[in-house]
């Protein structure tokens, strides 16, 4: 185990953090401990990292790196495990290893994007090249293992051995954290980030790979795929080596926007193979590049994903299905994924949440991280529908043909927690938007208006509890409905920010929830039916501006107390200040009490700053905007009789968007009247 060395801010004496902070008996790191030189009380935040300069013989450059010292050794004799401090012989051996040349198998490749990784920054740790990731002993071991694996004469065994050794690359590096009470010190690095800890564990090759080798042998011993049975390939999903209409089913787990930088995270392992991913083709949102030309916007992400979905659409058989697993907190990224699927030709049939039970590091430790992924079920329309469309063209018959086909592909019933759920895809307004998207995708005019469509639905199909069914599906639904005590609750239709706020208010009244619980439910609402010019709001912003969160201080709010005591048996009958109730209620959002409306109004004032950006925006028209911001801005301008501001901003709003909102249109018309009459 290695520990970084710090200096005391009082006496400048060297402090080996692990030596001084570790309690030997409890195996816990103390929050405060005395300086071994002057006795002043220290905490880790008070310490200053000590750097040393050393020559990097591989590059010929001088590096400034944190000073590290070996602090603890763990070893076995027979079945007994022991620990000790490194003695003079151990230190002499480490010095001898440090003097050896770097094995030629260890790659010396400069990291291209070391500026973007999360703290502690790579450059702060003196890491600019791949070989800096390994301490001297680990570098020698990895180089020898790689050389032996690569030199095996049998191609299949060579690939197997390289695969095995590859598993140790991250675990042998300085990314491998020393965790005091860990069962094992193999692969204790943080996933999804190059995090260099202050204390790292350097395992031996046998400790790291011994058990892994046994497990790999068991896994591969009976694996004998025959020709034509299986195919595993690595490449771009935008260029699949498959013929048209060849695949029965697609399951895809696409890149999650800007959560992870996949190409960069692959770089360390790929450097050993000498084959590097082209980062420019990485389907991510990347705003962190020093070179602005290399940055990727949300629209770049959409285009990259669209290329992949178009290829999926090409190789999938007509009438077959694709499952997409997706997770991202940003509405813009979620919208980009849906748009990419729609552009490719897929029709979404269902969006639901997937609870993976085991959360990621961020999901467990961060209050705003997503704990549940979304599962999107979409299909490629069958060949008959496409052929009939080609023969008929953009007519009403084609529209009803699409609806008929789409309804066949939707779930008839959906049960969650013993209750019948409303199937949002069967909502008449969602059906209309799916139909419109179908015609838009074929570059043809939509043959009917929304009113004509709704009227036609009532004549041709059957309605139950606000949902549309085919005549042959109704019996199945009615049978299931008869078994349930209550009808499914019809969802509020979310089409803009105002309706999104209403939906949240309705949901939180029934279930005061944490951000993580609320997010998968909310994000599924931001799909079809959204107004064209209305920008999709972020959930965090909507909650902050319109609702209240219990921070764990004071009594639990009545709304949260009522919900928890009704739904959790162990919390019934508890006082509002009971620690058990407080712990469960903390970080839950709820609808504010009318008596606290003044506090909420203060929050709303923040939106006026965004309104000012609309006012200052150059260009003839605003492409996207928040209606709630416009309403708040118009209201404030009207109150101060600033009619010119209302007119100026209103003229930047597309006519169809202005006509759809009665409040904005009224303020605009009255402002024009006031200006014209000189009032």
From TrEMBL:
<dbReference type="GO" id="GO:0008168">
    <property type="term" value="F:methyltransferase activity"/>
</dbReference>
<dbReference type="Pfam" id="PF01555">
    <property type="entry name" value="N6_N4_Mtase"/>
</dbReference>
<keyword id="KW-0808">Transferase</keyword>
<dbReference type="InterPro" id="IPR002941">
    <property type="entry name" value="DNA_methylase_N4/N6"/>
</dbReference>
<comment type="similarity">
    <text>Belongs to the N(4)/N(6)-methyltransferase family.</text>
</comment>
<feature type="domain" description="DNA methylase N-4/N-6">
    <location>
        <begin position="247"/>
        <end position="382"/>
    </location>
</feature>
<protein>
    <submittedName>
        <fullName>DNA methyltransferase</fullName>
    </submittedName>
</protein>
<dbReference type="InterPro" id="IPR002052">
    <property type="entry name" value="DNA_methylase_N6_adenine_CS"/>
</dbReference>
<keyword id="KW-0489">Methyltransferase</keyword>
<dbReference type="InterPro" id="IPR029063">
    <property type="entry name" value="SAM-dependent_MTases_sf"/>
</dbReference>
<dbReference type="GO" id="GO:0032259">
    <property type="term" value="P:methylation"/>
</dbReference>
């Amino acid at each position: 185990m290695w520990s970084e060395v710090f200096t005391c801010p009082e006496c400048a004496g060297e402090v080996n953090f692990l030596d001084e902070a570790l309690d030997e008996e409890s195996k816990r790191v103390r929050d405060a401990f005395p300086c071994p030189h002057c006795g002043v009380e220290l905490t880790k935040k008070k310490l200053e990292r000590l750097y040393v300069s050393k020559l990097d013989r591989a590059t010929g450059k001088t590096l400034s790196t944190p000073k590290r010292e070996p602090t603890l050794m763990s070893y076995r004799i027979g079945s007994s495990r022991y620990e000790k401090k490194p003695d003079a012989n151990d230190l002499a051996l480490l010095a001898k290893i440090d003097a050896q040349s770097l094995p030629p198998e260890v790659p010396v490749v400069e990291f291209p994007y070391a500026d973007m990784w999360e703290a502690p920054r790579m450059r702060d740790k003196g890491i600019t090249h791949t070989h800096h990731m390994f301490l001297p002993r680990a570098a020698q071991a990895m180089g020898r293992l790689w050389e032996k694996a690569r030199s095996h004469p049998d191609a299949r065994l060579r690939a197997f051995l390289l695969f095995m050794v590859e598993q140790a690359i991250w675990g042998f590096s300085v990314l491998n954290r020393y965790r005091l009470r860990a069962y094992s010190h193999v692969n204790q690095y943080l996933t999804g980030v190059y995090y260099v800890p202050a204390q790292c564990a350097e395992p031996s090759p046998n400790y790291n790979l011994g058990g892994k080798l046994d497990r790999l042998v068991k896994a591969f011993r009976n694996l004998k795929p025959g020709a034509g049975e299986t195919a595993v390939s690595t490449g771009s999903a935008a260029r699949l080596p498959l013929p048209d209409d060849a695949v029965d089913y697609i399951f895809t787990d696409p890149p999650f926007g800007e959560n992870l930088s996949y190409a960069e995270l692959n770089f360390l392992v790929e450097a050993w193979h000498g084959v590097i991913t082209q980062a420019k083709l990485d389907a991510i949102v990347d705003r962190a590049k020093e070179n602005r030309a290399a940055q990727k916007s949300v629209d770049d992400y959409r285009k990259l994903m669209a290329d992949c979905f178009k290829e999926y659409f090409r190789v999938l058989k007509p009438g077959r299905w694709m499952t997409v697993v997706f997770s991202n907190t940003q509405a813009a990224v979620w919208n980009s994924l849906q748009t990419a699927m729609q552009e490719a030709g897929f029709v979404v049939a269902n969006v639901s949440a997937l609870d993976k039970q085991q959360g990621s590091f961020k999901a467990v430790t961060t209050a705003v991280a997503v704990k549940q992924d979304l599962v999107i079920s979409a299909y490629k329309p069958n060949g008959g529908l496409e052929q009939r469309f080609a023969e008929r063209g953009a007519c009403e018959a084609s529209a009803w043909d699409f609806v008929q086909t789409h309804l066949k592909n939707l779930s008839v019933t959906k049960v969650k927690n013993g209750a019948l759920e409303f199937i949002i895809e069967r909502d008449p307004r969602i059906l209309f938007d799916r139909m419109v998207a179908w015609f838009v995708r074929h570059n043809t005019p939509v043959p009917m208006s929304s009113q004509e469509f709704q009227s036609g639905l009532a004549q041709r199909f059957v309605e139950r509890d606000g949902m549309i069914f085919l005549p042959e599906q109704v019996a199945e639904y009615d049978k299931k409905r008869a078994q349930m005590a209550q009808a499914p609750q019809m969802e509020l239709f979310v089409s803009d920010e105002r309706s999104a706020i209403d939906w949240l208010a309705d949901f939180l009244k029934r279930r005061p929830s944490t951000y993580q619980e609320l997010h998968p439910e909310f994000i599924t609402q931001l799909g079809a039916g959204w107004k064209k010019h209305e920008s999709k709001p972020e959930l965090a912003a909507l909650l902050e501006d319109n609702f209240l969160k219990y921070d764990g201080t004071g009594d639990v709010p009545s709304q949260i107390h009522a919900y928890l005591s009704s739904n959790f048996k162990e919390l019934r009958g508890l006082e509002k200040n009971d620690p058990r109730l407080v712990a469960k209620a903390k970080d839950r959002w709820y609808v504010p009490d009318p008596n606290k409306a003044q506090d909420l109004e203060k929050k709303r004032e923040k939106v006026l700053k965004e309104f000012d950006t609309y006012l200052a925006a150059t260009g003839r028209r605003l492409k996207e905007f928040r209606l709630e911001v416009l309403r708040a801005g118009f209201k404030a301008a009207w109150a101060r009789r600033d009619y010119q501001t209302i007119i100026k901003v209103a003229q930047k709003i597309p006519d169809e968007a202005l006509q759809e909102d009665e409040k904005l249109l009224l303020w605009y018309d009255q402002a024009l009247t006031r200006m014209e009459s000189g009032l």
